[in-house]
Structure formats: C-alpha cells, structure tokens
Amino acid sequence: MWKPDRESKKPLYAQIADHLEQRISYGEFPPGSQLPSERKLAEQLGVNRSTVILAFSELRSMGIIEGKSGSGTRVTMTKWGATPKHTPNWKRYAEGGNFLPNLPFMRRIREALSGAPALIDFASGELSGDLAPSEEISNLMSRHQYTAYLGYDHPQGYIPLRQVLVPYLNKYRQIQTTESSILITSGSQQSLYLITQCLLSPGDAVAIEDPSYCYSLPMFQSAGLRLFRLPVDRDGACPEDLRALYRRHRIKMVFLNPNYQNPTGAVLGMERRKRLLELASELGLPVVEDDPFSLTSYGGMPPAPLKAMDAAGSVLYIGSFSKIAASGLRVGWMVAPNAIVERLADARQQMDFGLSVIPQQVAAQFLKSDYFEPHLDRLRMQLQFKRDLLIAALKRELTGLISFTVPEGGLHLWCKLVPQVHDGKLLEEAIRRGVVFVPGSVYGSDSGYVRFTFARARAEDIDAGISRFAEALRALLEVPSP
Amino acid sequence: MWKPDRESKKPLYAQIADHLEQRISYGEFPPGSQLPSERKLAEQLGVNRSTVILAFSELRSMGIIEGKSGSGTRVTMTKWGATPKHTPNWKRYAEGGNFLPNLPFMRRIREALSGAPALIDFASGELSGDLAPSEEISNLMSRHQYTAYLGYDHPQGYIPLRQVLVPYLNKYRQIQTTESSILITSGSQQSLYLITQCLLSPGDAVAIEDPSYCYSLPMFQSAGLRLFRLPVDRDGACPEDLRALYRRHRIKMVFLNPNYQNPTGAVLGMERRKRLLELASELGLPVVEDDPFSLTSYGGMPPAPLKAMDAAGSVLYIGSFSKIAASGLRVGWMVAPNAIVERLADARQQMDFGLSVIPQQVAAQFLKSDYFEPHLDRLRMQLQFKRDLLIAALKRELTGLISFTVPEGGLHLWCKLVPQVHDGKLLEEAIRRGVVFVPGSVYGSDSGYVRFTFARARAEDIDAGISRFAEALRALLEVPSP
Ligand SMILES: Cc1ncc(COP(=O)(O)O)c(C=O)c1O
Ligand SMILES: Cc1ncc(COP(=O)(O)O)c(C=O)c1O
C-alpha cells in the first residue's frame, strides 16, 4: 500500500492530497462516491488523523471533494462535468446480492492489522512465518522442474496431489479412500462454502457447535440456513443434544470440529464419537467433520476421526494444509461420496475454474518429501512451547481475572474473563495498546470470552502482548460500568 | 485415475470388479447410492462396455450391487448390515442449493476428454502446452527464492502482483489505476462469479451479448438473473439495442467482451464503444468489460478498452493470464471503484480466503521479467499460424458446408453450418471419430453454429481433427432427417 514519504520535503498532508486526487481521477472514487473515513485513512496511511483532515480540506478547497469533516466526505459531481445520473450508484450495487458482509469485529481486526503491521497478533488463526516450512517449500520449488502443462485443472483437483493424499489420509488419519473420492479445495474454507451453497437450501436447519468457528463465517447466514446450537464442553458436543435438536427442527446437517476445536480446544470424546455416528446413521443425517488441527497434537496421535469409523457413509471429511504448513498455500481437501464430490466439483468450476496447479504441485511434493515428518515434529514442539509461553504470561498478568482449559493441540487458547467487560471496548483498548485478539462473541457464545491464538505471534512478543492486553482490561475495569 | 492393467494376467473385468468393490467399501458409493452408468464407466476406464457389464454382473452375484444392466445400478443395502434410513440420501443433498449444474454439452465434452485424452480437442478454450510459457515459469521458479511468508493473503490479492499490474495495465491497455483499485481473482471466472453473486440480486435484469461465453455459464441463471440479449455482428453489440432493452426491462448491468469476443471473434467498433459509454453514463448503468484476449491480437494493438475512456466511472474491467500465459495459473484481476473492490474482496474471503500466494508470485515475476514480451510475440505468431492451419483445413474439407469470419485475435473460430444438423448428434458423431468441438447452442444462439478453438490442439493435429469433423458431419447428412 502507498504510504507518504516521511523523508520528503513535501508536507505529509500535501502528499496525501495529491495521492487521493490521483485515485479520484483514476475512478477509484467516482463522482458522488464516499471516501474512507478520516480515522480509517489515518490508520491505513500510518499518520495522525489531523494530517488527513488537512489533506481533505486541501481537496475541499480545490472543489474535488465535499461534505463536512467528521460526517462522510464525497467526491463532488460538478468538478468532473458529470451530473448525478452519470455514474452508476456503486454504493447501491455494493449492497446487492445475498452475500452478507464479514462480521464488524473481523473487519475491524483486519483493518487494524493492515494499518499497523507491528501490532502483536493474537487474532489471526494461523502459523507465524518461522513455524511455516517456507525454506523447505522454497527448496522444493527450486529443485523440481515445474514444467507440467498448466492448463485448466481436473475439476476435482490435481491428480498427483490426490494420489499422495490417499496414503497420507491412511497413515495420519486412518481413513481409507481413493483419489476419486477426494476433492481439492481452496483450504477448508472453500469446502465449507461449497457445502453450504450447493447441498443445502435456504431455510434448511443445521446444527453447529457453540461456540464455533462457523459463527465467525457469515457464509452460513448468507446461504439462508437456520443455525441451531450444540453446546461444547470439555468433551465436545453431546449426541443427546443433537437428537433433541433433530426432533424439534428437522436438522439437515451437522457441522463438527472434533479435534482441538476452534475456539475451545475441546476434543470430542471417543464414546461421543461412537454415539454421534450411530445417531447420524439412525437419522440418515450427514455430518461434516472439519479436521484442520489433528496433526498439531502436542502429545501423540489424536483420536481417530469420525470418517475412519463411518460404516454408514454419513461423514463429509475436510482437511487442510493451513494449520500444519501454510495458510497462504490455500490447499485443503474433502473426502466424500461420489455423488457429492461430483456435484461440488461441477459447481466449483463455475465459481473459479479450480485451483492453481502450482500450489497443488508444491503441496504434493512437500507431502512426499523427507521434509514433512521433521517439519511436523518441529511444529508440534514449537506450538507447545508458544502455548506454554502464553499460559505463563496469562498466569503472571491475569490470575483471578481469567480462566481457561489447557489445549493439547491446535493454535488457540479460549479464555473466560471473570469480570464483565464490553467486547468491543476491550478490543479498541487493546488495539490502542498494540495488541489484537478475537472477542468471544464472534464465535456465537455470550460475550465474556476471548480467543488468543498463540501460533501467529512471535514467541518473543507473547509476553509483551499479554501485558498490553492486561493493561487494556484493567483500563476498562477502572471505569465504572454505566 | 485408476485404469485396469492390460499386462496383468487377471482379466480386465475382474480387476474392475475388485476396484469397484474397494471404492464401495470405502464409502465412495455408500449403500443405496447409484453407480455411474456402464457407458460412463467404460469411457472412464478406457474399456469396452461389455467388460463393465461383466464386472457389474460379478458384483451383482456377490450381492454388492443390484439393479438390472442398462437401468441404474445401485449399491445394495443389506450386504452392509444397513437399512435404508442408515445412509444420508446423498442424491437428494446433491440436488439441493441454488446452484445449477454445468450444461450437459459441457459435461459431455469433459467426460469424453477425460476418458480419451487422445481426442483432438477443438473444445477447450485454452492454449496448448507448447504455447504456454512453461519453461519460462519453471526457470523463474527455480531462480527466485520463494521464501515470502505464506500466511493468509491480503483480501484484494498479493500486493507485489497488484503493483506490477499497474504499469502493465497502463502500457498494454492504456488504463490508469492504482494497486488499491485492483482485486486479484481466480481467473476472470471468479470476477464474473463475484459480480453476479454480490452486486446483483435475484430477479435483476442484465444484458449480455448473443452469442456469448456467458451463456455457457449457468452461474448467471444460478444467481437468478434475467438475461436479455444484445445481438453481436461483425462490430460487436449495438448501443441502440442496449437502449431498447433498458427501456423495456430496466437493465441493471451489461456484460461485454469487446475484443475478439468469445465465441464470434468480433471486435467492438470504436464508434460503438463511445456511444456505449455515453449511454452507460446517461443511464448510470454499469458495464462489465471482460477482456481476456486483447494481448493475443495478431496484428498489433487492439482498440483501447472501454475502461481507458471511462470518464464517468461506469466500467468494471476484468483481465486474466489464462489466454496469454496459462489457464492453470488461475490469475485474473478486476479494476473497479473502491466500494466494489472492498465489497467483493470481503465476500471472496468468505468463499475461499483468497488465492494461493505462490502463483501470484510467479505471475508477478513473469510480468516483470524479460520473458514476457518475447513470449507474447511468439504466442501471437503461433496463434495466427494455427488459425491459418484451421482455416486451410476447413476450406479443403468443408467448402460450401460452412462459413465464417476470420478472427484477428483470440483463440476461437466461429462457424456457421450451412446444412441443418442436430447439435448433439453431431457432437456424438465427432466424439466417436476422435474429435471434440463446442456446439454453438451452448453460447445461446440458435443451433447451426460450431466453435472451433484452434489454440488448444497441437498444430500437427488440426488437419486430422477437421477431417474427422467433416466425416462426422457427412455421416449425419447421409441419414435423411426424420
Ligand atoms: C475449524 C476451522 N475450519 C476451517 C478453517 C479454514 O481454514 P483454511 O481454509 O485456511 O483451511 C479454519 C481456519 O481458521 C478453522 O479454524
Ligand atoms: C470471455 C471469457 N471470459 C472469461 C473466461 C474465464 O477464463 P479464466 O477464468 O480462465 O480467466 C473465459 C474463458 O474461456 C472467456 O472466454
């Protein structure tokens, strides 16, 4: 992103005014359209709000923009020889369609991070650069000749990748399958998107865990689904709750994240797995098993997935490289009955014509290489190390103010806040102090929880991040609640 | 894909029966589900239909499948200790959602190609392996250190790629823009998908060219849009037709492919470009300019895009690497006003969390490299050469039976068939003889047209392909129409 040049003799506000004038003249902000708020621009450009206010007043005096400082600022119509009807009402178009915008908290976090990359990041659910196998991947890329024909890919995904996933799934997840049952997707995310868009219809009732990663995705509401909650305890969701929901709402599908659940870290108990599968097959109810974290397990193998015990063929299984290698690869997979794989592959063609072949080649090489096992070992150790750093910092800074269960795998720690504080205010206080986390209400449960991702921040920043968070929390506690 | 081993002592039918039994036991075909038809399986496995019939009867005698040969074959319920309610009704789920399946002709062509890769391919709208810069890309990949942090990408796409697209768009397409107005997508396809899903609502009327690539995409119907046709002549679509459609149907958006239009090859005349833009700004009507072919122009620069003359900010511009480098890269871009870029980037996050970083790095390197210009020169020459081969073959084999206009860019030749033949029958006759093309009706116009892509087949196969096509056509002409 463009930033003003602090070494230049030209004042910051004038640089910003010129930059905005150019973007306006190129049509990024057509006549009549709204400019970003002063706060947002200041954050994006890394300057004080007063500098943006100066730049705006410069543009206002040139007749390029109009509207008062503070309330929305718009590009003028007249200056450009255009009358109101001349430009499409882009704002109205942007509000069209069925697609709900991302949750405000998630947008706010993204905005804060893109404006100030030095924020200590307990929010992004991914690995830090040093945990990702970047060097291994770079080596593989320079060693192998990627001269395969780069035409449109097979609708189910790159065949050699599907071929190496067969023994991978067998070895690490005890799942028996063939390449023809596998669909490669852009991470788990696209698998979830395809399921909600193509297998369910508006008005259908689905059950999801509470709290759950799924609540952070407006995708479920965008598809018009009615969401019903399965409370998660230490052993995950309870089969009896599912039966009750099914009776009352004719649930059409269940979404579970059985291992190191996001956000709670819970692991679905073996007894519950068995009863859930029995129930699913008794009711003919499909189960979506979202399983991105299993291989991060710090202490040996996690329980077998539902899919490995799925005699009745009730389970759609989803995996991903995001949490064990790199989220920027965008390689995930689904294992599903033929009718489903064909349907989803067909629909995906229409959305994006499939994934790029190159990251699929890289992923296949990486899985087959001698790098994979040592990488996993190192990843697990380092995740556990970071988890322990986080826990030590929390104990030092916040004893009595928070409580949590120690997770045995995954990237996240789910904390209950003892005092009652306002989610949004806590987030703003934290951002002001240079740290971000995800407010618990994003995951559907009542507020009063916080998700800390310990995988993304650098180990040496974890302490400072928690100190800042503790300051933010204490600042709110000092103010008497209204 | 698994194929039976023709060297093995085990008979083909027994290998196929074992293979199917395994896939059934793994849950690819759960109890009660339907197996692919005998014809389809035979095509996939590259065997005679009678071999599949034998394999099926073996499985039938083992009680694994049931149903008569010819009518649908299903996996039995009883053998697996399951009663009908035990498995989700996957077929019903596969029919859910709003998403229409791909067109039967497109599925048929894909099926035929995946069963018999040696078919001469005049159907796939892409470059052949030797036209793609595979070696250049392979060199770039081994030369550069791809150790950038592979985290979730910026919602608008990889910043260095957007940065090199700014001078690219300026140099080759006379478009002035900044990186903040660019959204990177999975080819043009995902740009179109995002526009239809997120900016338009069910029931909205849109205008598209007739014939048009867009008719081959059920995506427009899936979004519930009402489609109205702008007939295409040698100079593209006519502004007056758009005005008439707008009056009658309150058109909300226009989709145009102004340069070397797919399928006709037409180039929108300069006068019409100007009038279209005036009309769009008079009506406040957004224009989607889909421009994947411009840089293939065989004889110098094609006309400036609408976007370059778009003073009123009416145009959403879409470009892609698919037709000038490699479709398997899956890198395309949209240039649009800020409100639209932000909205679509936000929605795309929910669908797939963005593109893989690696192909975007590769695309950026390629654009910046000294390989790009020479590659373009070579590509244009070779496309023209293949076009001429195709035309020579058509003249030799089919004079009097077809007519066409010679395209000056792009990958396709659009032919009118003089005799009246049945689209689907012609396609089957052609597949039987080892060649595929796309029936014209896929693009929305009346039948009686054929699209030949000359870019995908190897130059040395073009002659033989057209001979086979001519045989197929003649075979139909000999049969008196009913
Ligand atoms: C439970 C769960 N499922 C799916 C995803 C999507 O990840 P990706 O698409 O990168 O695989 C995430 C990411 O945070 C997750 O936590
Ligand atoms: C006119 C047009 N637009 C868009 C596309 C989609 O191509 P891609 O998504 O590979 O860029 C095509 C492909 O054939 C096309 O012909």
UniProtKB/TrEMBL annotation, chains A, B:
SMART domains found in the cross-reference section: HTH_GNTR
CDD domains from the UniProt entry: AAT_like (cd00609), WHTH_GntR (cd07377)
Record bears the keyword Transcription regulation: yes
Coiled coil regions, renumbered to chain: none
Keywords: Aminotransferase, DNA-binding, Pyridoxal phosphate, Transcription, Transcription regulation, Transferase
One function term, GO molecular function aspect: DNA-binding transcription factor activity
InterPro entries, per the entry: Aminotransferase_I/II_large, HTH_trans_reg/aminotransferase, PyrdxlP-dep_Trfase, PyrdxlP-dep_Trfase_major, Tscrpt_reg_HTH_GntR, WH-like_DNA-bd_sf, WH_DNA-bd_sf
Family classification: In the C-terminal section; belongs to the class-I pyridoxal-phosphate-dependent aminotransferase family.
PANTHER family: HTH-TYPE TRANSCRIPTIONAL REGULATORY PROTEIN GABR, TRANSCRIPTIONAL REGULATORY PROTEIN
Protein's name according to its UniProt entry: PLP-dependent aminotransferase family protein
